[in-house]
């Protein structure tokens, strides 16, 4: 799924661009970084309500190309600058974590187990 | 072991601001050496988990990286306080992390199981009042000479 499609499905806005060109293969939604680290996959989007610098650090470590902040959460400038330095695109949606994940899953983006 | 590339990274207790830097450096070293990316990811995840444990739970310690032909090794040692019940600590979901730490996104009790899952060899020893040692070896499936 293209990042542009994710943006549309989540009625999201770009907080730090540009949108990645590469295909997003899977997604993971959690506010616990160790859950995210448990089953990382290639070209995974990360959906979270956790807006502190550790989200970007974890994403960078896993080569995550796209972070989606849910529930209308907007991170501080420091966090957005970290994402820019790491080459990670950040978008924000008003949907809750559950609703945002549900929309992407229903549209065909599988979870980390690969069993869609 | 001759010809192994060795680096040592110190990790301070409570240093949330810099938590993850050592793992970022380890990832960079492995990339430069041309280690396969799937192997880098496994090492990076385990190293990040262990680095955070040093920051959150320990009194500080070190992560030693060695790169040998066909495998990467992490040897981790801290200065205490030690883990009273290793079997419990290894269980998924068991954590003594404070609410403050949970607010930062850690304390799911997944770190040690994550390390074990990613490593081909995993050994942990802990002595109360002395410290905890973790040895992890990650083999390259292709057995590439790095
Ligand atoms: N180096 C250490 N020194 C002392 N205690 C430790 C150390 N590493 C882990 N522990 C203990 O083992 C428990 C489990 O560790 P583990 O990494 O699996 O989970 P966590 O750190 O609590 O949460 P998560 O890793 O999911 O953020 C910790 O809560 C802590 O009590
Ligand atoms: Mg941990």
Summarize the structure in words.
The complex is a heterodimer of chains A (116) and B (146). Chain A has one domain: HprK N-terminal domain-like (Udp-n-acetylmuramoylalanyl-d-glutamate--2,6- Diaminopimelate Ligase, Chain: A, domain 1, 3-Layer(aba) Sandwich). Chain A contains five helices and five strands. Chain A has helices at 3-9, 33-38, 53-61, 77-86, 97-106, and strands at 13-16, 26-29, 44-48, 66-69, 89-92. Chain A has a five-stranded mixed β-sheet with strand order 1-5-4-3-2, with helices on both faces. In chain A, helix 3 packs parallel to helix 4 (77-86). Chain A starts with a helix and ends in a 10-residue tail after the last helix. The mean pLDDT of chain A is 94. The radius of gyration of chain B is 15 Å and the shape is globular. In chain B, strand 2 and strand 3 (71-78) form a beta hairpin. Chain B has a single domain, classed as Histidine kinase-like ATPase, C-terminal domain (Heat Shock Protein 90), CATH 3.30.565.10. Chain B is α+β, with helices and mostly antiparallel strands and 146 residues long. Chain B has five helices and five strands; from the N terminus they run βααββαααββ. Classes of the chains: A alpha/beta (116), B alpha+beta (146).
């Amino acid at each position: 799924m293209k990042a542009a499609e994710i943006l549309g499905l989540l009625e999201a806005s770009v907080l730090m661009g540009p949108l990645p060109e590469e295909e997003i293969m899977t997604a993971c939604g959690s506010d616990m970084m160790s859950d995210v680290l448990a089953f990382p996959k290639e070209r995974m989007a990360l959906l979270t309500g956790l807006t502190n610098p550790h989200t970007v650090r974890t994403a960078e470590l896993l080569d995550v190309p796209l972070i989606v902040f849910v529930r209308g959460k907007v991170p501080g400038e420091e966090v957005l600058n970290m994402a820019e330095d790491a080459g990670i695109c950040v978008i924000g949606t008003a949907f809750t974590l559950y609703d945002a994940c549900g929309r992407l899953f229903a549209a065909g983006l599988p979870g980390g187990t690969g069993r869609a | 072991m001759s010809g192994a590339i060795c680096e040592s990274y110190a990790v301070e207790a409570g240093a949330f601001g810099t938590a993850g830097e050592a793992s970022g450096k380890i990832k960079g070293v492995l990339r430069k050496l041309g280690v396969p990316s799937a192997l880098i990811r496994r090492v990076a995840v385990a190293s990040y988990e262990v680095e955070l444990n040093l920051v959150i739970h320990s009194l500080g310690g070190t992560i030693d990286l060695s790169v040998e032909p066909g495998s990467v090794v992490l040897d981790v040692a801290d200065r205490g306080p030690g883990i009273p019940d290793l079997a419990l600590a290894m269980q998924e979901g068991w954590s003594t992390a404070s609410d403050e730490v949970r607010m930062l996104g850690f304390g799911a009790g997944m770190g040690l199981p994550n390390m074990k899952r990613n490593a081909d060899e995993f050994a942990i020893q802990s002595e109360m009042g002395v410290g905890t040692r973790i040895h992890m070896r990650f083999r390259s499936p292709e057995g590439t000479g790095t």
